């Protein structure tokens, strides 16, 4: 179980974006996180992935504090704009090789998402949908226990969006990975998630 408890976070000296927020994600579950633009969904995802240290509160992964876990990250975050997450000077084959744990073979999930013809191309030589599939594969090859998908299909057309989510749901079924689908699109979440939770997810906030 991924458990974020009493999370407080802000950017610099700005207002509190998270103020006592709680969120849980179980293995094998696709949970939707809905909220309007700017409410703090991405901030929460970054805290749960260990990329933004909360001012207060804890993130626990299967019983251990996230900060204490060494080795490959058990919680992977995938973002909306794959081109920003990839080195533009690396071909796709290298992007995936660098992510894959040492000695690991290409996985089934990777093969489903990525075509070998793309390996010799640079990120700018793929379409947005293809690049997001690579980005997702790159997170999945590390075999995370939990995947936080932050608006991963927001810039894709409906068919490509459906395909991406069908790949992800297959992976969830095979590996019992927990997925948090973060979006401001209620209809998308209704289609892909087992359950949808809404911001603010907080106890009555105690500010200050
Ligand atoms: N690096 C940053 N520095 C300062 N403020 C930030 C930073 N990142 C986000 N914010 C602010 O924190 C608030 C929450 O942002 P966040 O990106 O978490 O919201 P969101 O719900 O994911 O929004 P969206 O759906 O538009 O992506 C916003 O008011 C945003 O302007």
Write the layout of secondary structure elements.
Elements: E1 2-10, E2 16-25, E3 30-34, H1 41-48, E4 56-61, E5 64-65, E6 75-78, H2 82-85, H3 92-99, H4 108-113, H5 128-140, E7 146-150, H6 158-175, E8 178-183, H7 186-192, E9 195-198
Parallel strand pairs: 3-8, 3-9, 6-7, 7-8
Antiparallel strand pairs: 1-2, 1-4, 4-5
Helix pairs in contact: 3-5
Bound molecules: adenosine-5'-triphosphate.
Adenosine-5'-triphosphate binds at residues 11-12, 14, 17, 35, 37-43, 184.
InterPro entries: AAA+_ATPase, ABC_transp_ATP-bind, ABC_transporter-like_ATP-bd, ABC_transporter-like_CS, P-loop_NTPase
GO molecular function, one term: ATP binding
Family: Belongs to the ABC transporter superfamily.
Descriptors:
ABC_transporter-like_ATP-bd; ATP-binding cassette domain-containing protein; 31% helix; 208 residues; binds adenosine-5'-triphosphate; alpha/beta; AAA+_ATPase
Descriptive notes:
31% of the residues lie in helices and 25% in strands. A hairpin with a 5-residue loop joins strand 1 and strand 2. The chain has a single domain (28-52, 72-198), classed as Rossmann fold. The protein is built from 7 helices and 9 strands. It is globular, with a radius of gyration of 17 Å. The chain has a 5-stranded parallel β-sheet, sandwiched between helices. The protein has a 4-stranded antiparallel β-sheet with strand order 2-1-4-5. Helix 3 (92-99) runs parallel beside helix 5 (128-140). The chain has 208 residues and is α/β, with parallel strands linked by helices. The structure holds adenosine-5'-triphosphate. Belongs to the ABC transporter superfamily. It comes from Nocardioides daphniae. GO terms for molecular function: ATP binding; ATP hydrolysis activity.
């Amino acid at each position: 179980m991924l458990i974020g408890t009493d999370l407080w976070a802000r950017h610099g000296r700005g207002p509190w974006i998270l103020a006592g927020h709680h969120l849980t994600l179980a293995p094998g579950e696709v949970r939707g996180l809905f909220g309007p633009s700017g409410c703090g969904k991405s901030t929460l995802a970054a805290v749960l992935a260990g990329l933004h240290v909360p001012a207060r509160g804890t993130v626990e992964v299967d019983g251990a504090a996230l900060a204490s876990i060494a080795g490959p990250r058990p919680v992977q975050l995938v973002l909306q704009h794959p081109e920003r997450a990839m080195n533009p000077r690396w071909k796709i084959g290298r992007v995936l090789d660098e992510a894959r744990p040492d000695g690991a073979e290409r996985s089934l999930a990777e093969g489903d998402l990525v075509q070998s013809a793309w390996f010799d191309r640079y990120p700018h030589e793929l379409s947005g949908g293809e690049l997001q599939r690579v980005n997702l594969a790159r997170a999945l090859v590390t075999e995370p226990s939990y995947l936080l998908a932050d608006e991963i299909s927001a810039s894709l057309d409906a068919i490509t969006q459906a395909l991406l989510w069908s790949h992800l749901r297959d992976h969830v079924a095979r590996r019992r990975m927990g997925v948090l689908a973060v979006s401001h699109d209620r209809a998308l979440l209704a289609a892909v998630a087992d359950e949808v939770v809404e911001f603010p997810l907080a106890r009555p906030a105690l500010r200050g």
